[in-house]
Design a protein that fits this description.
By secondary structure, the chain is of the alpha/beta class. It has 8 helices and 4 strands; from the N terminus they run αααβαααβαβαβ. 44% of the residues lie in helices and 8% in strands. A 4-stranded parallel beta sheet has the order 3-2-1-4. The protein starts with a helix and ends in a 12-residue tail after the last strand.
C-alpha cells in the first residue's frame, strides 16, 4: 500500500513534503543495525507510511521470541496469548510523526496488520502540521513544541532510538 500511495502522489507534492518511500529490505537492515534491545522506545519523526517503524516492530518482536519468553509466559497467570502481549508492549513503545495524515493512516494500518490487529489502545502515531508557526516533526528540536501532542511532549527525551530517513528537501522550505 505504501508503494502505491507514493506513486499516486504528484511529483510536486512529493518534493514539497519531501516524501521518500524506504523499501522494506533497506528499512529492515537499518532497524537490525540500530535496535539494541527489545525494550527500545522508538520514534520516527518523519514516519511517512511507516516502513522504518514496521521494521523496528518486527526486529524487536524477533528479539522477544526466545524460549525464555515462553517459559516466563507459562509461569505467568495471564490468559492472553504471549504474542499479543509482546505486540501490545512494542506498540506502546513505538512513536511516529508525519506532516501528511494519509501517510500516518497507512503507517497505522501496517502496524495494525503486523500486530495481528490485537485489541489495544490508540497507536502513538501523529500528524504534525507544517505552517508559519509549526515546523512539523522539527518542533521536536525547538523549545516551542507547538504542534506536538501532549503525551509526546511528556516522553520527550526518553527515546532509545530515533530512526528516520534524512530530510529530502531544502531547509528554506521549512
Amino acid at each position: 500500500l505504501a508503494m502505491i500511495y507514493q506513486r499516486l502522489l504528484s511529483e510536486t507534492y512529493r518534493k514539497a513534503y519531501a516524501t521518500f518511500y524506504t523499501k522494506l529490505p533497506a528499512a529492515r537492515l537499518l532497524a537490525e543495525l540500530s535496535i539494541e534491545s527489545r525494550e527500545n522506545k522508538v520514534i520516527d519523526p518523519a514516519a511517512g507510511t511507516g516502513s522504518l517503524l514496521l521494521s523496528t516492530f518486527y526486529t524487536r518482536q524477533w528479539l522477544y521470541l526466545s524460549p525464555k519468553t515462553f517459559e516466563e509466559a507459562e509461569r505467568a497467570t495471564s490468559v492472553r496469548p504471549v504474542l499479543d502481549e509482546i505486540s501490545e508492549y512494542l506498540l506502546t513503545n513505538t512513536y511516529g510523526l508525519d506532516a501528511l495524515r494519509a501517510a500516518i493512516a497507512l503507517s497505522a494500518g501496517s502496524l495494525t496488520i503486523a500486530s495481528l490487529a490485537i485489541p489495544r489502545g490508540a497507536l502513538r502515531l501523529y500528524s504534525v502540521p507544517v505552517g508559519v508557526e509549526k515546523a512539523g516533526s522539527l518542533d521536536l528540536l525547538t523549545a516551542m513544541k507547538t504542534a506536538l501532542p501532549k503525551d509526546l511532549v511528556e516522553v520527550y527525551g526518553k527515546f532509545d532510538l530515533v530512526i528516520m530517513n534524512p530530510p529530502f528537501t531544502r531547509s528554506d522550505r521549512i
